[in-house]
Design goal:
The chain contains four helices and 14 strands. A hairpin with a 2-residue loop joins strand 13 and strand 14. It has 255 residues and is an alpha+beta fold. Helix 1 packs antiparallel against helix 2 and helix 3 runs antiparallel to helix 4. The strands form four sheets. A five-stranded antiparallel beta sheet has the order 7-6-8-13-14. Strands 1, 2, 4 and 5 form a four-stranded antiparallel beta sheet that branches.
Length: 255
């Protein structure tokens, strides 16, 4: 399903996106050495419920997971990159943490992810995070009505490839709207001029992610957390954007 939203729905999406950004930024500021991943999950739950929003994750049970997910935010640490299931783990100095959050408010979903280092950061980790952020910016820069989805994927892939990182296309960005995961799929590598043609009113969750030295994933025993097959570090950056006549408006940008 591909939804094209009207202006009133996009306005509600702005509110949802602002809430997602606020929650992620607040948790980033609170996360220090010793913070437990279950604390982070609790913070996300409290903030979204206080704002009258609903989690897209708690009852989420797709074919690829061991559902339902049962938590309010994805917390992926170091070699974990996607769908990190919160568990009893205290963050250590130098941990690379990815937070991925999707919520629904007033019937419209927004989805965003940030990666950052807790405590002491290595140059290698900062470069990896920077590459995903630059890939996200490059994709957003070319997103406008009439552009083919392959152009978005190519922009992401070009940045990650030039930075020297292998690219996995199993999981990527997606449409959002009244539900969290919709068509079109946005792989992190593609060919320009191919695929779905963007239209005004489309909401997209664009999410470059990368692993330092592999394009292979393995799944934890929890049935959810996806890790690099080699144990290398990973990073993930994501924004929800609304396509309009003037380009792509970022709905999940922290104020």
């Amino acid at each position: 399903m591909i939804e094209i939203l009207n202006q009133a729905e996009i306005a509600r999406g702005r509110d949802t996106g602002a809430l997602v950004a606020t929650i992620l930024q607040t948790i980033k500021e609170r996360s220090t050495v010793g913070t437990n991943l279950l604390e982070i999950d609790g913070w996300a739950k409290s903030m979204m419920q206080a704002a009258g929003a609903e989690s897209c994750y708690v009852n989420y049970a797709p074919a690829f997971g061991r559902g339902p997910f049962g938590h309010y935010i994805c917390t992926s640490v170091n070699d974990a990159v996607l769908h990190g299931l919160p568990h009893d783990y205290a963050l250590a100095d130098g941990d690379l943490l990815t937070l991925d959050l999707a919520i629904s408010k007033a019937g419209i979903v927004a989805d965003s992810a940030i990666s950052f280092v807790v405590g002491t950061a290595s140059a290698e980790d900062l470069a990896l995070i920077d590459a995903t952020e630059r890939a996200l910016a490059a994709a957003i820069a070319v997103a406008e009505p009439g552009v083919k989805m392959g152009n978005i994927s190519y922009a992401i892939g070009a940045v990650l490839r030039d930075a020297g990182y292998p690219i996995n296309t199993e999981f990527g960005g997606h449409g959002v709207g009244s539900t969290m995961h919709q068509d079109p799929h946005i792989p992190n590598m593609g060919r320009p001029g191919r695929g779905y043609k963007l239209q005004a009113g489309l909401l997209l969750a664009i999410e470059p992610w990368a692993m330092v030295d592999t394009d292979k994933l393995v799944t934890d025993a929890d049935g959810w957390t996806l890790r690099s097959a080699t144990g290398c570090r990973t990073a993930h950056s994501e924004h929800t954007v609304a396509i309009s006549a003037s380009g792509a408006e970022i709905l999940t940008l922290a104020k």
